[in-house]
Amino acid sequence: MIEIKVRRPAPGHHGQMPRNEGRPRIAIVVDDAPLLNALAFLLEADGWEAAAFRTAGDLLENLPRSHCLLVDHNLPDMDGLSLILKARAAGMTAPALMIAGKPTATVRNIAAEAAIEIVDKPLDGDDLKRRIRAVLDGAG
Question: Residue 70 pLDDT > 80, yes or no?
């Protein structure tokens, strides 16, 4: 397996980045290292900058300035919905997408009310990039 080196943001940069500051940055929180590396590679290859985190705690401790947040629903330290809501409460304003396998109606309803787009598993790289572009376009 090839290990992808992903740039991590400097601590203390909160909220959403202005759209004119370089490449769009996508903050990714996925605990599965191979999937995290693959997602970072996919996004970097498409011209975005990826800020990768393995746990909810890592993201909350650093709160990167990002254009978009991509979070797995099943994280070891907190579910994805709770993470996104906590990140927003801490000042992160970027639009969010949550990766979920067979989300319940309750999860879908909470996500819809919070303007969190659900990306169903199994992931399709082209669909994921299309959906990220859509939320980025909507955030501008």
Answer: yes
